[in-house]
DZIP3-like HEPN domain-containing protein
Amino acid sequence: MSTNAREAQEFLRLFKCVVDTGADVLVPFTKNKLLTSYNGNFERFLDDKKHELFHLWHSKRLLCCACPPAGCILKRTGHMDNWIFKKMYDDSGYEEGGHITRKNGKVEQLCVHKYVTRNIGIHELDIIALSFLLRNLANLLPNETTALDTIRTNRSMICHAYSTNCFNMALLNKAWSELDTALVDLTDPSYKGVIKKQIKYLRMVELEKEEITELMTNVEEAIKVSVFLKQVLDRPLKHL
């Protein structure tokens, strides 16, 4: 892939903005929306929300041992991808046999204790995972939802690109404009000016050879991960 073309250089700057500035904005935004009552402790949050997240992940409408007798009705704006759940939990926990019920040979209830919270910080999640948690578990204002969707859409477009020069300048400029607005919208008021300056700097900076090499490596890795995840997610999930 050539990095001399204007479009390729602009693509790399945009990639850096989405990955670096996106994390600078979304991690504190998510902490503020989801972790305030947990004193910022993400593991405590995951322990507390395991039942809800389990049902957001599980593709079948099954009960679990944490469900109330009347059944479980949870807000659900989308199905959690397999890799997101496994990033936060592993299946090394003790599974109580008595918590699993079957009727006519068909499983009706699972044991949620099988899934154990991983030792993970919220900063270790990417934009897609953070976005899912926010959309399903946070009370978002309409403009926050719009901004979040804009960031996620542009992140997906950029990180799923098949090369650094597959987009024309018109599309890249549109992405810059959308990201500028969305990222600033989700930034704490006292830091909005800082983020605007950071985005402006990224649009103008002349990338050095070493940074281009590093960004190219990151882009190629993102493309590989995207292809791998697509292959994984195309397979039917097996939770039992």
Notes: The chain has one domain: 6-232. The first strand starts at residue 63 and ends at 64. The longest helix spans residues 6-34. Residues 232-240 have pLDDT under 50 and may be disordered.
